[in-house]
Write a structure and sequence with these properties.
The protein is an alpha+beta fold and 375 residues long. The protein has eleven helices and 13 strands. Helix content is 50%, strand content 15%. The radius of gyration is 21 Å and the shape is globular. The two termini are 27 Å apart. Bound molecules: flavin-adenine dinucleotide (FAD). Flavin-adenine dinucleotide (FAD) binds next to helix 8 and helix 9.
Length: 375
């Protein structure tokens, strides 16, 4: 989304094109019966679709051309993630994009040159920040890296690491000599039992506990081109933006799914969508979605133009979580007794909303941060 000379807001040409292609792709590749089938699959995603994504160049969108990328920005990644969210798509696209952006922010030229071309070609990556204390403050780090000769030996455990099993390498936050640091951990450095799959509310996700005890990394795997606190803050905001985009897309399809039911289900001889007690909240859900989408694309614009836009990003995350939670909650209610069952898709959206809201700070947390930033 961009602001034109006459003050109106619209999508850029790149965004509009990607929106159309991504919407078609996600709808075709991720119909809801496939989403449900992949819940029972250990990997949680279709490798053939992942390869197609890579071939389409979507992993490369916001990576500079010198590292094998397309050289656009996160403003052009947002439409893709939004449409994936709309189709409840699983897989490591968001994790890999976040890892790429973390590496771009804090990595040395050598680190970027070593990892980004493969990533653009379809090698997944992930970030490991969260610890069992559950604090959303990314600088509260209890995992450590201790110098041992020329290397560093890691210790501690990360939790809620999305897509750790699929990733070829992880960006991991640690405390190194008393200060935050971010290190690259190639998957083959982890012990054989280092990953434990977690049961999480959103069954379309793959989340892991990752033990770092005894993992050895070289000094050249420490991100050193920018202060780690800045890299971590950037990763946090990129994550918030992409989660917001994903929830925004999810809200749209949740509303579509629900409205379709309101237009077909009859009670007391009338379509239930004709009752004010139902149609007014349905409109509230749509208004909240429109607000969220405006915030998401304003934040995408800030990221593209200014490199971050913390206020816009936090607003987007807060509003997208609020909109999706409300739409999904009403979806359950409006489906009546069926809404309480596993067969009703409303639960897929409600679970996604819980997950998206809880990662990288829920709506209340974002609004507290906004108060500090704005007042
Ligand atoms: C946990 C659970 C246990 C249950 N146990 C039993 C049981 O033991 N025995 C049994 O017989 N049934 C049971 N039910 C079914 C329950 O009685 C029905 O789900 C309930 O009466 C709603 O009917 P419905 O599912 O057909 O929804 P609908 O009547 O189709 O309602 C769908 C939506 O439309 C709204 N709506 C419908 N009519 C109007 C209106 N006139 N004005 C405004 N809004 C309206 C509803 O509020 C709801 O949001 C159970 C349901 C649940 C969730």
């Amino acid at each position: 989304m961009a602001f034109s000379n006459n003050g109106s807001i619209g999508f850029t040409d790149e965004q509009a094109e990607l929106l159309e292609i991504a919407q078609r792709f996600a709808r075709e590749k991720s119909p809801v019966d496939k989403v449900r089938a992949l819940i029972d699959d250990e990997t949680g995603h279709d490798p053939a679709v992942w390869h197609e994504l890579a071939e389409l160049g979507w992993l490369a969108i916001a990576v500079p051309e010198e590292f094998g990328g397309v050289g656009l920005s996160l403003a052009e990644v947002v439409p893709v993630v939004e449409q994936m969210g709309r189709a409840l798509m699983g897989g490591p696209f968001v994790s890999t994009t976040i890892a790429a952006q973390g590496l771009l922010q804090g990595g040395t030229e050598a680190q970027k040159a070593a990892l980004l071309p493969d990533l653009c070609a379809g090698v997944p990556a992930a970030v490991a920040l969260t610890e069992s204390h559950g604090d959303w403050d990314v600088t509260r780090i209890e995992c450590t890296a201790t110098r041992d000769g020329d290397d560093f030996v890691l210790s501690g455990t990360k939790v809620l690491v999305s897509d750790a099993a699929a990733a070829a390498w992880l960006l991991v936050s640690v405390t190194l000599e008393g200060a935050p640091a971010v290190v690259i951990v190639p998957k083959d450095r982890l012990g054989p039992d280092a990953l434990t799959r977690e049961v999480v509310i959103d069954e379309t996700r793959r989340s892991f506990k990752v033990s770092l005890d005894g993992v050895r990394v070289g000094a050249d795997q420490v991100l050193s081109a920018a202060p780690a606190t800045r890299t971590l803050a950037h990763i946090d905001l990129v994550s918030a933006l992409l989660l917001a985009a994903e929830m925004c897309g999810g809200t749209a399809s949740c509303i579509d799914y629900t409205v379709e039911y309101l237009k077909t289900r009859k009670q007391f001889g009338k379509l239930i969508g004709s009752y004010q007690a139902v149609k007014h909240p349905a409109v509230d859900a749509l208004v909240a979605y429109e607000q969220a989408r405006s915030h998401v694309y304003a934040a995408a614009h800030s990221f593209g133009e200014q490199g971050e836009g913390e206020i816009a990003t936090r607003m987007a995350k807060a509003q997208a979580a609020t909109a999706m939670s409300f739409a999904a909650d009403r979806a359950i209610q409006f489906h009546g007794g069926f809404g309480f069952t596993y067969d009703c898709d409303a639960q897929l959206y409600r679970r996604r909303a819980f997950w998206g809201d809880s990662r990288h700070g829920d709506a209340a947390y974002q609004r507290r941060k906004l108060a500090d930033l704005m007042f």
